[in-house]
Amino acid sequence: MKELIKEFAKGIIKENPTFVLALGLCPTLAVSVSVSNAIGMGIAATFVLLGSSLIISLVRDLIPDKIRIPCYIVIIATFVTITELCMKAYSPALNRSLGIYVPLIVVNCIVLGRAEAFACKNNLTRSFLDGLGMGVGFTLALILISSIREFLGSGQILGHTLVKGFEPVFVFGMPSGALLVIGLLLGLFNFIKDKKA
Amino acid sequence: MINNLTVSGSPHIHKPVSVSRIMWTVVFSLIPAGIAGVVIFGLDALWVTLVAVAAAVLTELTFGILTKKKITILDGSAVITGILLAFNLPPQVPLWLPIVGAVFSIAIGKQVFGGLGQNIFNPALVGRVFLMASWPKYMTTFNRPFSFDAVTSATPLAILKEGKVLEHISYLDLFLGKHGGCIGEVCILALLIGAALLLIKGYISWHIPATYIFTTAIFTYIFGGAQIFSGDWLFHILSGGLVLGAFFMATDYVATPLTAKGQLIFGVGCGLLTAVIRIWGGYPEGVSYAILMMNAATPFIDRYTKNRIYGVR
Questions:
Q1: Judgement on whether residues B145 and B240 belong to the same structural domain of the protein
Q2: A152: nearest CA in chain B?
């Protein structure tokens, strides 16, 4: 049981996909302008991760080794399509603001990375927990980055003004601001890790 | 006796020139331009400069203490960063702007990379570009010279960019600094006095400034006018931050090429980019972006302009 909890928890800090594995940086840079985008993206990616990890770990003995990547992509794309259609149906505004980055989850390296590195070698429960942990870790990282960026870049969080008279630092709403925030947070994570070790 | 014959590693000839000595000379050479800025724009210019310098030095000190490294505030490099940043700001900005800019310059532009000698970009320009991207409304509001009641006037380059006709600005006005602009960039005469000091002392070489200004002049002469070969090249040299940038920021020791050949390439690149941004770009002025872009290219320039080692084919 303890081992299973560990399987879930490693994705949040110790092997955080964004800050430690440095995977999936493209969607991270693109959608972290606002917290609402980040939450939407995080949930979508978590759902895809969960679904693909589950199915891939179920069929891992059926897939011939040589064509495993195309098979993974087909499975992942299925879940991405489900996500995209649901999003279009139930929250078209979010779908509009995330734009191309929803279909691009297909090639998100966190999803494929977990399929290749974990789900194809482990049983159902472990793969499920791994996918969930990674998804939650990714979502938390996105929320952390986007709340810093949204606060500094527009003075708001989720549309609420926090400090009156604060002059927004526009640069944090731009791609360069995303690179700055991610770089500094990566540095901070490494610093904490070195301290612990 | 035998001890005297021991030969240490090269270099064998030393000059009494140290980093801090060069840095303080550069600070000294920037003073004329600072005085000119205060004369033209009033005491506001002085406050902005002092606040920027203080913030830069304090940030350097804080970083030194936090990282438990040698405290490097006395070598003058943070002071230069503060001055250069302030010289690139309009005179009547709110005083928190130079503070934020100076902290960003030193913290992100310099210390994150490991301090003086490790930074890949000119720290002052990093700060300026950060401020420019973050608070454009403060960074592009300029005051009319010699009118201390906050009458705004666009810079000559901005007027040109909007396609309006420049009225009553003579070359002499541009040379002496009687026009809207940043604190340290307007008075070309004062900048040249400081630059002459550095050139005579041998602390900067002619390669980068000369090729930079020359390239900008040629390029704006060819493409800057309504027809080809009819650009007002003298106007382009005298307006904006070209002289300040060419002599004081493009010659930064750390982020520019080491060899003479590399410096020539660097200068030409800066000149081309500046002219391209001024003529076709979205911003009226391109000196800071040009220098930063060439800073980024410096490792490659250095790599391809290595001096031949004596005795090696």
A1: no
A2: B134
On whether any CB of chain B is under 8 Å from the CB of A170, the answer is yes
Pair (B255, B212) in one structural domain: yes
With CA atoms as reference, report the closest residue to B282 among B166, B161, B165, B126.
B161
Same domain, B40 and B181: yes
B108 chain-A contacts, CB cut-off 8 A: 180
Q: Please answer whether residues B133 and B289 qualify as being in contact, where contact means their C-beta atoms are separated by less than 8 angstroms.
A: no
Q: Which domain holds residue B297?
A: 204-303
- Identify the segments of chain A with pLDDT beneath 50: none
Q: Smallest CA–CA separation between A172 and chain B, in Å?
A: 8
Q: From the list B108, B112, B134, which residue is nearest A169 (CB)?
A: B134
- The answer to whether position B257 is within a domain reads yes
Closest chain A residue by Cα to residue B104: A180
Task: Examine residue B8 and state whether it is found in any structural domain, yes or no.
Answer: no
Per residue in B261-280, pLDDT (tens digit) is: 999 999 999 999 999 999 99
* DSSP secondary structure string for all residues of B165-212: PP-S--HHHHHHT-SS--TTTS-HHHHHHHHHHHHHHTSS-SHHHHHH
- Cα maximum dimension of chain A: 61
| Residue of A169, A172, A174, A188 to mutate, testing the B interface (most B Cβ within 10 Å of its Cβ) | A169
pLDDT confidence bin for B229, thresholds 50/70/90: confident
Residue spans per domain, chain A: 2-139
Cβ partners under 8 Å of residue B308, min gap 6: none
Looking at CA atoms only, how far is residue B258 from chain A in angstroms? 28
Are B133 and A171 a contacting pair at CB < 8 A? yes
**pTM recorded for the entire structure:** 0.87
What is the pLDDT at residue A1?
78
Indicate the range of A62-71, B18-27, B166-175, B223-232 predicted with least confidence. Answer: B166-175
Query: In this predicted model, what pLDDT tens digit does every residue of B39-69 receive, in sequence order?
Result: 988 888 999 999 999 999 999 999 989 888 8
B95, B224: one domain:
no
Residue B12 lies in a domain: no
**CA-CA distance, A19 to A39, in Å (whole number)?**
17
Q: Is A166 on the interface with B (CB under 8 A)?
A: no
Q: Is B5 within the bounds of a domain?
A: no
